[in-house]
Design a protein that fits this description.
There is one protein chain. The protein is mainly beta. The protein has one domain. It is 0% helix and 54% strand. It contains no helices and eight strands. The strands form two sheets. Strands 1, 4, 5, 6 and 7 form a five-stranded antiparallel β-sheet that branches. Strands 2-3-8 form a three-stranded antiparallel β-sheet, with no helix packed on it. The protein is globular and about 45 Å long.
Amino acid sequence: MSQGDSISENEPIQLDFYRAVWPGSSLVFHDKLMICIKDPRFKDPESVGKLCEVVSDLSKVPPALFEKRKNSSGQEYYRIWYKLVLTPCSASLLFDVEFNGMSYGTARANYY
């Protein structure tokens, strides 16, 4: 999302996320969402702050649905693309986790 974007209550906003994960690793991801209160082109570190940490749990997704890849050493890993769907409400933000267009529940937001 960028400064000046129109945001409407109860209108979902999709944010794309990506992870490279070793097989057997945790599928609970922690993402820090930042907020900029000034024009981001000025790169003023004082204008950027933490909004919240979102905890997404993809452990219910069958691993067979993940894209398998191999690194340059021949080790297999999963490349996982997922979405956080943020829905602004009157007094809060709701987060859902989507993988391959399917909802896998809500994500927990821990505000700073």
